[in-house]
Amino acid sequence: MSGQLSHRARPLLRAEYMQTVFSQLWRRTPAVGLIVGLATIFSVSPARAALQFDVFLGYDGTVREASWFPIVCEIKNDGPPFAGVIEVTPGSYGKGNIQRLAVELPTGTLKRVVIPAFAASRYPMLWDVRLLDQRGKVRQEQVALRPQRQIGGEIKLIGSLSRTASGAAALLPIKRNQPEAQPAAARFQPSIFPDNPLVLEALDAIYLNSEVAVSLRVSQVNALLGWVNAGGHLIVGLEQVSDITASPWLLKLLPCAPKDMVGVAKHPEFEDWLRAGESMTNISPATARPGPGGQGRSGAPNQDQTVTASSGRSPFADLPVDLAFEAAEIRVVTGEVRDGHVDLAAGDVPLIVTANRGLGRVTALMFSPEREPFKSWKNLTTFWTRLAEVPAALYASTDYVASYGQSADGIFGAMIDSRQVHKLPVGWLLALLLVYLLVIGPFDRLWLKRINKPMLTWITFPAYVVFFSGLIYFIGYKLRAGESEGTELHVVDALRNGERAELRGRTFLSIYAPANTKYALASDLKFATFRGESTPSGGGQNAETANILHTGDNFRADVFVPVWTSQLYVSDWWHSGTMPFAVTLNSVGDDWQLTVQNLTDHAVTAAQLVVGDRMFAVGELAAGQTKTLKLAKASGTSLPEFVQVNGQAYVSEVQQRQYAFGSRSGGQIQDLPTASMVASFLGQMGTQPNGQNFLAPPGLDLSAVVAHGNAVLLAWAPNSSPVPPVNRVKFKRAAANTLWRVPIAIGQ
Prior knowledge:
Elements: H1 9-28, H2 30-48, E1 51-57, E2 62-64, E3 67-77, E4 82-90, E5 98-105, E6 109-119, E7 127-132, E8 138-145, E9 149-151, E10 157-161, E11 184-187, E12 205-209, H3 210-213, H4 218-229, E13 233-237, H5 241-245, H6 248-253, E14 256-264, H7 269-276, H8 304-311, H9 323-327, E15 330-337, E16 341-346, E17 349-357, E18 360-365, H10 380-387, E19 406-407, H11 409-416, H12 426-450, H13 457-480, E20 485-497, E21 500-513, E22 517-523, E23 527-532, E24 534-535, E25 540-541, E26 546-551, E27 554-561, E28 565-577, E29 581-588, E30 591-598, E31 606-611, E32 614-617, E33 626-632, E34 637-638, H14 639-657, H15 672-679, E35 694-695, H16 703-707, E36 711-717, E37 733-744, E38 746-747
Parallel strand pairs: 2-9, 5-26, 10-11, 10-12, 12-13, 13-18, 19-35, 20-37, 29-38
Antiparallel strand pairs: 1-3, 3-6, 4-5, 4-7, 7-8, 14-15, 16-17, 17-18, 20-21, 21-28, 22-27, 23-28, 24-25, 26-27, 29-30, 30-33, 31-32, 31-36, 32-34, 36-37
Helix pairs in contact: 1-2, 11-14, 11-15, 12-13, 14-15
C-alpha cells in the first residue's frame, strides 16, 4: 500500500510514525526519547520547507504566432513566508521584455498566477521563469522552457471546457506533414481557465459543455463573454436544460431558449452536412447568414471556394457512413429559436443554431457531443473540424503555403514614427564615401608628393578621419536630431454590453528620443498588456529591452530608447465606458438605410461603412451630430480592391522603414485614416507570394466579421484619445488619434 502513496504523503506518514516511537521511548527512557524527538524534528523540517514551483506555457502546451498566451505559474510554499517576484525572460537569442510579477507567499499556501506573454514568431521560443525572494535570490527556476507546439498565426486553434477529457474537441490533421501547420486543439481545466480576455484571443473557438459552465467563476465568465464580444466563436454543447437555467449568463447569450429534451431516431443530416462541406462564405458576404464555415479570426482567406470551383466536390464527399451512429437515437434539447440562424436540423428539430454577438458568434449544439452515440461516432473529429472552420482545401491538397511576411505593427509604425527622423539618400551616401576614398588616397598622396613631405601623412591621415567623422556627425545631427516626441494611435472596438460599452483597444505608441533616455510608461485600465514591436522575420521583438512590472491585470514599464531613433510599442487593453456612437443599419429594398449619431466630444473627419464586400463613404460627423443616409447596395467601393491596392503599396513602405538609408520620406505612410482602415481588413489581401503578406494579431482583422453577416462602422477621430495616455512623462511633441470600429447588426 505504501508503494502507491505519492512522494508528498510519505514524509507525513514518516513523521506520524516517528512521533509514536518518540512517545513510547519518552515514557520508558526520557533521555533517549529526547534524542529521538530532535531527530524527528530535523527529519521532518526539510519536507516542510519544500518550495514547489511549476510553470505551464500556452494552451495545454500550444502557443500561436503573433498572439498573447498565458504563462501559468503554480507555487506551493510549505516553508517560511516570504514576498517573492516571478521573473519571465525570453531564453532564446535576441532582445525581449523582462516581465515581473510580485507575489505574497505565506506558509502553507498554494497560489496560481497567470502572466501574459507574446509569441512573436511561428517558431518555438525558449522562456526562462524564475522565482526570486525579496533579496533578489533565485529560490526556484524553470529555464529554457519550450512549448510543446507552436503554430502559425493563420492556423486554427480551438479550446475545450469539456465535461470529460475524452469529450474535448479534436481536429483532423491536414494532408501536408508540417507540424506548425496542423490545426490544434487544447483542453482547459475549469480551475485554471484564464480570467483575462486578452490571453484568450489566440483561440479561434472554444467548446463549452453546459455542465461545466455552472462551475466557472464570475471572473472567468466575464473573460469568456469579453472574448466572444471581441470576435471569438463560442460553441456550447447542451447537456441538460437545468444547466442553462442555472447559468443566467449563458441563457442570455444563447440564440435559443431551451425547454425540453426529445429523442430523435433518424438523423442522417449530420453526415450529409459533413459530406457537403459547403462553407457559409461561399454565399455573398452581404447576405450571408452566420453559420459554420468561413474565415477565421486570423483573416486567412477561406479556401472552400477553391475546392468547390476546381473539383466541384468537398474533400469529405466520400466520408464513410457510420451505421451504428445512424441507427442510434440522439437526445436533443428543444426550445424557441430567438435569433440567429438554424444551420442544421433533423426535420423541424434544430440541431445547430448560430447567432452573432458583437464581433463574435455563439453556436448552440442542441445535444451533447460527449454522450453516446456521438462519443463513439467515427466522424466526430470531422464534425469538430467543420465547426472549427478549418479550410477544406487543406484536406484536398498538400500545396499549403504559410502566410509569412511582415507584421501589421509595421504599418502603424510607418504611420506614427517621428517625421523628425530623415534618411540619407543612398546616392549621397555613395558620393560621400567616394570623396572620402579620394581624399585619403590619391589626393593625400599627390598633395604630399607635390610639397615633397610624404612623412606628413602621419598627421594628415588622422586629420582626415577626424574631419569626416565630424562631418558624418553633423549630417546625422541635421537629419535626425530633434525634440522628444510621443505619438499614440488607438484602434478601438466599441462593443455593446447592455447599456454600457466594453472598449477593446490597441494603443500603438511611437517614442522619439533626442538622447539615450529611459521613459516611464503605465496603464491603470481594467486589463492591459505591453510589448515591443513584433518582427516575425527577426524571430522576436525589435524594440530595446523593456522592464515590465505587472500590477494585477495592468502594468508599469520602463523602456530605453536610443539617441535619434523612434521605437514602437504596443499596449492591448480592455476598458468599460459609454458607447461612442449610436448606429442602426436596415436593409430597405436595394438600399441600405444608415443612421449614425456621434456621442463623443470629438469630431470625426472620415467615416466608412463596411457591409459584405463593399465600402460606403459616410463623411464627416461633428460632435453630437446625427446623420441619416440612404446608400445603394450596388454603389460604394470594392473592399478587396481597396485593401489590395493600398496594402501592396504599404508592403514596400514597411520594408523601407527597416532600412537605415533610402529616400528622405521612405518608410512613411501619410494618409493615416486610410492606412488604419486597410489594417482593419488585411485578410482581404489573401495569401501573397514571396512573403508579401501582413500578419495581423487576432482580432485586428475584421474580415471574418463582415463575412458572417455583420456590418462595421469605421470612424477616424483626430486629436482624440479614449483612455489616458500610456506615457507618464511629458513630450515636447505629442499627438493622439483614434480609429473607432463599431459592429452593427443588420436589421430588415
